[in-house]
Amino acid sequence: MRFDETDIEQMMAELRGSHGELERAAAEMEAVTATSTSKDRVFSATVDGHGRLGELRITGQAWRELSAKELGARIVAVVTQAQADAAERTASLLAGLAPAGTDPATGLPSELDMESMLRGLVEQFEGHDDER
C-alpha cells in the first residue's frame, strides 16, 4: 500500500489529535480525587486517582465508643468506597480513549468480545476436526 503526501499529513494530524487527547486525559486523571463519608458523618476519606489515601478525618467523639475491630472496619469501609469512586471516575475518563470493545482499565478485549473471540476459536477448531 502506498501513501501520498496528503495521506501522510492526515495521519500525522490524527496522531497529533490523539496525543493531545491522551495528554488531556492524563492531566484530568492526575486531578481526580474522591471523598467518601460514613452515614453518621464521623469518618471521611479522600483518595487520589490512583486510590492512594490522601486524607482521613475522624470527627466528634463517637468513635471512642467503638471497639478496635469496629473502628478499623469503619475506616476500611470509608476508604474502600472512596477508592471505588475514584476508580469509577478514572475509568470514565479512559472509556472514551479506548478502542471499541476494549476494557479501558486493562487494554484487553471486553468480556463479551472475549467470549465471542473464544467461540470463534472453538468453531474454527471444530471445523478442523470435520476436515480429517
Automatic annotation (TrEMBL):
GO terms for molecular function: DNA binding. It holds the Pfam family YbaB_DNA_bd. Transmembrane segments: none annotated. It comes from the Bacteria. InterPro entries: YbaB-like_sf, YbaB/EbfC. This is YbaB/EbfC DNA-binding family protein. It comes from Mycetocola reblochoni REB411.
